[in-house]
Amino acid sequence: MKNTRFNELHKLSGGKMIEFVGWEMPVEYSGIIPEHLAVRTKAGLFDVSHMGEVTVKGRGALSFLQWLTPNDVARLSPGQVQYTALTTAEGTFVDDMLIYCMGEGDYLLVVNAANTDKDFAWIAGHTAGFEVEVDNVSDAYSQLALQGPEAEKILQPLTAIDLASMKSFTWKKGRVAGKEALVSRTGYTGEDGFEIYTTDGSPEPIWEALVSAGKPLGLLPIGLGARDTLRLEAKLMLYGNDISDKTTALEADLKWICKFQKGDFLGKAVLEKQLAEGLTRKLVGFELRGPGIARPHYPAHHQGKKVSEVASGTFSPFLKKAIGLVYLPIEATAAGTEFEIGIRDRMVKAAVVPTPFYKRSK
């Protein structure tokens, strides 16, 4: 298994370590529920160094990324970040990702840990005809996520970066706990917070300083378990569950990242045709109306027949109810529509609800 540079600190902090897509990572420290609630009410610190980083540079970098992704990369100025995807010619997902505009002709792509090698091969395999250089720089980076309402208060004493002036989906460079870093106002929890990237070979002091500064404010180290429940409450996608190479961006309710007016991009023709003809299914949120928890792959039934399987499902620690995401026939996607989920040997009623399930107050 691969180790992040914070591996020993996780073990010293009581992290319960598991294998996750080839990495040894903490699944929890004090427990998924207290960790989840700490992020919602105070703050949490995540090691997300297993994520992948790919650089795209050159005179043709912008036109290359415009072709490769559905969102409009031309809208990005240096210092801005964009959520987007790598789409296939069929409009389905290779992955979802963030694009950081580092400067003119200079971009940093942050991709999912499970897909890093696949994504880089895909990106490198589409460079023909573009004046561009791509590089997988994942091994050079360590990444921490500081999330929660107290995040700014915890981080500010450790950096000269003016955090209050940073808007969501922007980044700045500076020192954090004495280490050169890139700090962005982004995250995967639905809370305010920051992601801290560094190429320093010994980034442990950043973790230690954040834990020390955050302890009086209720910060806890957070594992993969609470990371998943937090992102689901906020309806943030998980590749392999909610999106895949079998689901299109429109079916995944991500029409907002498809900028059809910008020019051609991979999958555009198929997505435009799907838009014109109308969707036959769509990803929706649901709540269980009966007892139980709807886990991924549990069968979903509508009007007496199986129509799909649960994409993501859990018990929401903050909302205190069973929630999930599922693809349903388009006629069954209106809020309030009831259907059933097979949980072990019984059928449990569920209902379509608006998403995100949780939205923080400003």
Runs in which pLDDT lies below 50 for 5 or more consecutive residues are none
Strand order of the largest sheet: 10-11-12-9-3-13
Order of helices and strands: HEEHEEHEEEHEEHEEEHEHHEEEEEE
Radius of gyration: 21 Å
For the secondary structure, the number of strands is 19
* C-alpha end-to-end distance: 40 Å
- Text of the CATH class of one domain: Alpha Beta
What structural class do the secondary elements suggest? alpha+beta
Question: At the third CATH level, what is the topology name of one domain?
Answer: Gyrase A, domain 2
Largest sheet: 6 strands, mixed
| Helical content class | 10-25%
For the record, the CATH architecture of one domain stands as 2-Layer Sandwich
Number of helices: 8
CATH homologous superfamily descriptor of one domain: Probable tRNA modification gtpase trme, domain 1
Q: Tell me, what's the shape?
A: globular
Structural notes for this entry:
By secondary structure, the protein is α+β, with helices and mostly antiparallel strands. Among the domains are: 7-49 and 141-233, Gyrase A, domain 2 (2-Layer Sandwich), CATH 3.30.1360; 52-138, 2-Layer Sandwich (Alpha-Beta Plaits), CATH 3.30.70.1400. It is 19% helix and 34% strand. The protein is built from eight helices and 19 strands. It has helices at 7-12, 32-41, 61-68, 116-124, 151-155, 204-214, 224-233, 268-277, and strands at residues 16-20, 23-28, 44-47, 52-57, 81-87, 93-103, 106-111, 133-136, 142-147, 171-176, 179-184, 193-198, 220-222, 281-288, 299-302, 305-316, 321-329, 338-343, 346-353. A six-stranded mixed β-sheet has the order 10-11-12-9-3-13. A six-stranded antiparallel β-barrel has the order 14-17-16-15-18-19. Strands 5-6-7-4-8 form a five-stranded antiparallel β-sheet, with helices on one face. Strand 15 (299-302) and strand 16 form a beta hairpin. It starts with 6 loop residues before the first helix and ends in a 9-residue tail after the last strand.
